[in-house]
Amino acid sequence: MNAKDVNWAEVKSEYLTTEISLERIADKYGISRSTIKRRSVKEGWVEEKASRKEEVVNEVIQRVVETETEKAVNRLENLQGTANRLGELIRAEIESAWTRREARMKVGALITETDVTILKGLTSTLKNLAEVTSGLYAIPTIKEQIELEKWEREKQQGSGATEGGVIFLPPIMEREEEDDGENDMDTTAEAD
Would you say residue 184 lies in a domain? Predict the structure, then answer.
């Protein structure tokens, strides 16, 4: 093909906008390689192609940066909203705790020494009642239950009993009696 019959704008556009080489364009359009080389050097196609590539890369980078920045801003706004909601919840819980504390302080101020003495007496009575009930219904204490379980394990392992019908019973724990004021009452009764 004659160089004058070539649509050089089309050839140049294809070279600049695609990855095709000058040699392949020359073959495609039937132009000699030396002619297309001279024309591209004269008009600066290679430099223009490099410049366009750089522009495209910069545009892509700019779009990516803008997109990622927008995503990061959205994430930060979401985190800020969450932090604000957590702050409100914490503030409400602190206020609630102070309110409960103030209520306890008011109740505490209403309890007298007599009330404390009565409460201690009730606690002692409940403890005694538990011991009496435990004795009536043969309910072992926690300490006795532990010893019984230990004895049963030893028995199952064969170390706690011998052949011949002899039965070894677990040791009976004596209950520790606490001084709960009963002795004071006895001495008072004797004094009368």
Answer: no
- H or E segment at 6? none
Report if residue 106 sits inside a domain.
Answer: yes
Do 77 and 115 lie in one domain? The reply is no
| Cα–Cα distance for residue pair 148/154, rounded to 1 Å | 10
Q: Which two tokens stand for residue 6?
A: 């070539």
- What are the tens digits of pLDDT across the range 64-78? 999 999 998 888 888
Q: How far apart are CA 68 and CA 2, in angstroms?
A: 51
Q: What is the dihedral of CA 128, 133, 139, 142, to 10 degrees?
A: -20
Within-domain flag for 53? no
> What pTM did the predictor assign?
0.36
CA quadruple 11, 14, 15, 17: dihedral positive or negative? Answer: positive
Torsion of CA 148, 179, 185, 121, to 10 degrees: -90
In a domain, 122, yes or no: yes
Its domain, for residue 14, covers: 3-43
Sign of the four-CA dihedral 123, 128, 131, 132:
negative
pLDDT, tens only, 82-113: 887 877 778 788 888 788 778 777 776 666 67
Q: How many domains does the chain have?
A: 3
Structure tokens at 103: 């209520």
- What is the C-alpha to C-alpha distance for residues 30 and 2, in angstroms, rounded to an integer? 9
